[in-house]
Amino acid sequence: VHINNICTRNYVTIESGRRLVPTNLGIVLVHGYLKIDPDLVKPTMRSAVEKQLDLIAHGKADFQSVLNHTLEVFKRKFLYFVKHVEGMDQLFEVSFSSLADSGRPFSRCGKCRRYMKL
Asked: Exposed (0-12), middle (13-18) or buried (19+): which is 81, by Cβ within 10 Å?
């Protein structure tokens, strides 16, 4: 499912020998995540969650405590990311044509002020 998702979203293409090759979009996204919060790109966060799940499976950790902690960590990361998303926008503006150049009407979200697809 993961490989299909990143292909469908045009983050990578599959070449001969089942080799994944990042697209410009995929490269810009990774650089944007690295610029804002490197933990979002590195496997360490997923690994930490998986270790906590193993502890739950072996009866050494409480499910609700792990869930609450994990949700809090990701909530803080999300809020930090939203607060610093301009760094991602800057990378996109350098790498791709601007919204105004597309000739399509766009509206900004009333909450986060990012452009929405109409």
From this structure: middle
Q: Measured between alpha carbons, how far is residue 117 from residues 25, 26, 107, 114 in Å? A: 17, 20, 8, 10
- Given a contact cutoff of 8 angstroms between Cβ atoms, the answer to whether 33 and 42 are in contact is no
10: helix, strand or coil: coil
* Model confidence, pTM: 0.68
Q: CB-based contacts of 80: which residues, under 8 Å, 6+ apart? A: 36, 37
Answer yes or no: are the C-beta atoms of 22 and 30 closer than 8 Å: yes
Q: Tell me the C-alpha distance between 36 and 116, whole Å.
A: 21
Confidence tier at 102 by pLDDT (50, 70, 90): low
Place of tokens 């150049």: 101
Span 47-64, mean pLDDT?
Answer: 96
